[in-house]
Amino acid sequence: MDENTIICRCEDLTLADIREIIKKGFLNPQEIKRLTRCGMGPCQGSTCRELLLREVASAAGKSVGELEMTTFRPPTKPIKAKSILMGVDNNEN
Amino acid sequence: MKTKAEAVIIGGGVHGCSIAYHLAKKGWKDVVLLEKGTLACGATGRSVAGIRHQFGTEINVRLAKESVKRMENLEEELDYNSSIELLQNGYLMLAYSEEELDLFRCNRDLQRNIDPHNMTEILAPEQAADLVPGLNLEGLFGASFNRRDGHASPFHVTQAYADAATRLGVDIHTGVEVAKVKKEKDRVTGIITTTGQEINAPIVIGAAGAFTKKFGEQVGLDIPVVPERHQVAVTEPLEMILGIMVISFAHGTYFKQTPHGSLLLGVGDPEGEVKDFNERSSWQFLYDVVQKTTFHWPALREVNIIRQWAGLYDMTPDSQGIVGRTPVDGFYLDLGWSGHGFQLAPAVGQVMAEIISGETPFIDVSCMCLERFERGELIPEPACV
To answer: ∠ at Cα B277 (B273, B279), nearest 5°?
Structure first.
């Protein structure tokens, strides 16, 4: 695959970026996420999570299922602060 | 893994890694660091990682001064080829009463007494609003500000120490959990991991935050530390609109913008939190953080929140760290930083290495010893949240 392929769209990370951090010895998706921000953008890894896991799995000689998955964090979708505030008002009513 | 070492460090947060580096730099050849998860996966990585001179006790002012200085040159000192993402544009502390502003004045005087070059200044509300465009002035009495303060990436700072320590010969193992600290008579003799592996060592250093309490119990020490959950919300990345870190002790809130563009919005609920090891996010927090931070900064209403996380403070009765030797020979502690530990790791790591090497530390931290709680010699830090 072309190394310039974008893996994480939100954080602008290419396959080359991911391979570079793997080459440094990082084979835990959580660590890679924290050091590169892969999956920390507005889409919360909905595209890149699987791509990252696949790349790490092949480097580690493991199956994707054997890897530690990165944490899924709430809220599920981006939500405006003022929408949350409106929820606070409704709660109090 | 080795079965013998000169010293075993429990905990791969920023303090554990800084101790490892400083020991190795002093020439210790056989140091092992054990981390049950990944480096910085606990309190370190979950902190908002502010860095400041603005403290209210002499010991913290001294530790902070040295630590900030090191953070400024950390990439060079540790030969780290990524960035620690240090943003050093200042740290603003909002005062919502005259008493609070008086406290900030007192703290500034203390800081100036210790360091004539300290840049902390007291600002009028309007001057604070110049730094945070659109800041709500309602109820604001003034602020304390130091433009040499800032924030960094806790992951990169920890990794930088870990990489440097590894190059100097420290064995760092992640995914290895310590089950027990071994003791014979009055001294420690090593550790046993959860998988039954033993490392014999005359020195064991507890740097595992609130988790260190159980190791204390195993060697007969009562370490008065409890975990307390604090949470952070992250916004979508925005253009740089906030160069500084902002904190309000009255509301328990703090926020900053990372170099990458996301705003991090934090708030704790010390009264409401059950003191356990729950590190999960809560939906109630989202209400709380949005209400409080949009009060300070109404423009935030229009911003998207994209994720949230939670982490644990390691709280002590006086909100101060526990540092140095203990009544059990060979057992040393570096924990209990109560929410302001990340930034002090550079100086504390060196202090710990000096104490463990039997030297007089370059900053006297004897007031932070474990025995202070028994003696009733608490050193409450007024400037923390």
So the answer is: 80
The CA R_g of chain B, rounded to the nearest whole Å, is 20
Q: Among residues of chain A, what percentage have pLDDT more than 70?
A: 95
Q: How far is B355 from chain A (nearest CA, A)?
A: 32
pLDDT score recorded for residue A92: 55
Q: Which of B260, B281, B304 sits opposite A78 (nearest CB)?
A: B304
The residues, ordered by sequence, that sit 6+ positions from A50 with a Cβ below 8 Å of its Cβ are A64
Contact B136, B50 (CB under 8 A): no
Report residue B62 as tokens.
């001294």
Residue A93 has a pLDDT of: 46
C-alpha to C-alpha distances, A90 to A93, B8, B46, nearest whole angstrom? 5, 54, 31
Which residue ranges form the domains of chain B, and what is each CATH number? 7-48+155-224+318-375 (3.50.50.60), 87-147+226-315 (3.30.9.10)
A24, B136, B155, B254 from A7: Cα distances, Å: 18, 40, 22, 33
DSSP state of B28: -
CA distance B363 to B350: 9
Lowest mean pLDDT among A48-52, A87-91, B13-17, B143-147: A87-91
Is the CB of B81 inside 8 Å of chain A's CB atoms? no
Distance, in Å, from the CA atom of B337 to the CA atom of B358, rounded to the nearest integer, reads: 23
A84 vs B281, B287, B309: nearest CB: B287
* pTM, entire model: 0.94
Q: Does B287 touch chain A (CB under 8 A)?
A: yes
What is the distance in angstroms between the Cα of A93 and the nearest Cα belonging to chain B?
15
Closest by CA to B147, choosing from B47, B244, B40, is: B244
- Check whether B188 has a pLDDT greater than 90: yes
Q: Catalogue all structural domains in chain A, each as residue range(s) with its CATH number.
A: 6-92 (1.10.10.1100)
Q: What's the rounded Cα separation, in Å, for the pair B353 and B25?
A: 9
Report CA torsion sign: B351, B353, B359, B365: positive
A22 CA to chain B: closest CA distance, Å?
15
CB-based burial of residue B227 (10 Å sphere; 0-12 exposed, 13-18 middle, 19+ buried)? buried
